[in-house]
Amino acid sequence: MRLRADVIVGGLLLASCTTGPERNWVDRTSPPSLRQPVVDEVVKLGKPYRIGGRLYTPVDDRNLEQIGMASWYGHELRGRPTANGETFDPDAISAAHPTLPMPSYVEVTALDSGRTVLVRVNDRGPFHSDRIIDLSLGAARALGLTGGGARAVRVRRVEASVNDKLALRSGNRAKPREQLNLLELDSARQRSNWTPPSASSAEWTGPAFIQIAAFGSEERARALATSLGARVVEERGIYRVRLGPFANIAKARAALEPLGAKGYPDATITR
User: Fold this and answer.
1) Residue 236: which CATH number?
2) Which helix (H) or strand (E) holds 256?
3) Are 150 and 184 spatial neighbours (Cβ–Cβ below 8 Å)?
4) Which one, of 147, 146, 138, lies nearest residue 120 by Cα?
5) Which of 7, 130, 183, 251 is found 20 to 30 A from 80 (Cα to Cα)?
């Protein structure tokens, strides 16, 4: 779940940030519909806000380091405004965080592989008690986390170089980061007092679905659903194409595997 720009922009505070050669840089690598000025010279933080009964307090924490679960979001929100007023590009390497300034830069590391990427935070979310960051589809792909369900990650705020900022603002990847080894990952877990969720909390019981795609057009969603024998679920103007229900997550995973070969590598398991 992500907070839309029209909900929180009114309460955001503005502060000066980077000046000089980065000013007025314009993205010319995205499709025309996504081109926009994308800058770092204005940072938005915002006042405390409440979502789902939970209070979130934005803070400029230069030493933030968290370990927890990450989810991701994709094409269903393409072209919509992020919480800092930019246009969401699912293929860019970006993320939503509930409290960090926008923009800010974090290293995100997949705990199962040690793979690490630099990510630009430009949105608010996720608003789930068991998740710490919402990755764009591009960021999730870079980390190998698009297989389905939330995955364990480390999030660490860093100071990014000018070149890395330019790369991320253009929708490209920054310079590759060094992969963490098991000792470093264990040390990070100990610092955060984080323990992996139990099997009962990490994997739900009962029915599961596979989300194949999501569209702003009901006609396109229903056409795809008909061709795959799937169903369409509408949520706030987004039409999600889903297979299921499956009796449990194991059966959903078995059905998910062949979808990549059929041209749907971004299909994911959901409740």
Assistant:
1) 3.30.70.1070
2) helix 249-256
3) no
4) 138
5) 130
